[in-house]
Amino acid sequence: MTAIPLHMPRRLVEFTLDGQEVRVPEGDTILDACRAAGKDIPTLCQGDTLTPKNACRVCVVEVEGARTLAPACSRRAEPGMTVLTDTERARHSRKVVLELLASSTDLSTTPRAAEWIKEYEAKPDRFGPEAARVNEEPKIDNDLYVRDYDKCILCYKCVDACGEQWQNTFAIAVAGRGFDARISTEHDAPLTDSACVYCGNCIEVCPTGALSFKSEFDMRAAGTWDESAQTETTTVCAYCGVGCNLTLHVQENEIVKVTSPHDNPVTHGNLCIKGRFGYQHVQQR
């Protein structure tokens, strides 16, 4: 008998990307194609474990024949299409988006934000000091994680991870409208009184540090947080028999936070409260 492959190979889609013919598996996005080709396209709201939300619009590219710029994170590659990633129009759009985001929110802990602002010559200061949207103190109401909404860009990734895409807890959602829009618990109740189960999967997908481990928050405040001095070791969670993979982030022989590999077939980057936060017993003295 002929063995049937578990995963049938996908057909290839051929199109033109910045003047070169490329082939990607059917169903891949323009962003997938760009990354496969080694092209660095900025993105904030895109996550490899979530359905694209098209919220930040930093990854826009120009598709020949299209009236508007297309978000590369969600636009599927189509046969024969012509895509330009570095046109003046696309660069200007990214510049304006970065200016708007950096003028209204704190991007100091957003990976590569400062690099992109410099690359696209964005000038957030031109909107003035009154552009800040939230200007509120971080919410520290539990010992596990901190919510700093001054850093929130409303990408909705945490809402999706807490909701139907992963956890199905629905502890948080978008509240308010316009300039008053924000991430909130139901009826704006304290987190400790909400449906939150403290799995921390919202922290895993947050691209800006608006949600962070309490340990990381405290170390940043003390000036001791140093990712360059941290090592990462992937192991198996010992709490139950599911076999979730944990990545331990260690600094000065102390576990400072726990994540999970996004390509792991068991967890896909997600963990429960024990796996993500239950590591203190390892370093009890």
From TrEMBL:
4Fe-4S ferredoxin-type domain sequence ranges: 143-162, 188-216
UniProt keyword list: 4Fe-4S, Iron, Iron-sulfur, Metal-binding
Domain 4Fe-4S Mo/W bis-MGD-type span(s) in chain numbering: 230-285
Pfam families recorded: Fer2_4 (PF13510), Fer4_7 (PF12838), Molybdop_Fe4S4 (PF04879)
Full protein name: 2Fe-2S iron-sulfur cluster-binding protein
Translocase recorded as keyword: no
Top-level taxonomic group: Bacteria
Organism of this sequence: Streptomyces kurssanovii
InterPro entries listed in its UniProt record: 2Fe-2S_ferredoxin-like_sf (IPR036010), 2Fe-2S_ferredoxin-type (IPR001041), 4Fe4S_Fe-S-bd (IPR017896), 4Fe4S_Fe_S_CS (IPR017900), Mopterin_OxRdtase_4Fe-4S_dom (IPR006963), MopterinOxRdtase_cofactor_BS (IPR027467), PSI_iron-sulfur_center (IPR050157)
Classification via PROSITE patterns: 2FE2S_FER_2 (PS51085), 4FE4S_FER_1 (PS00198), 4FE4S_FER_2 (PS51379), 4FE4S_MOW_BIS_MGD (PS51669), MOLYBDOPTERIN_PROK_1 (PS00551)
PANTHER family recorded: HYDROGENASE SUBUNIT, PHOTOSYSTEM I IRON-SULFUR CENTER-RELATED
Bilayer-spanning residue ranges: none
Domain spans labelled 2Fe-2S ferredoxin-type: 11-89
Record has Iron-sulfur as a keyword: yes
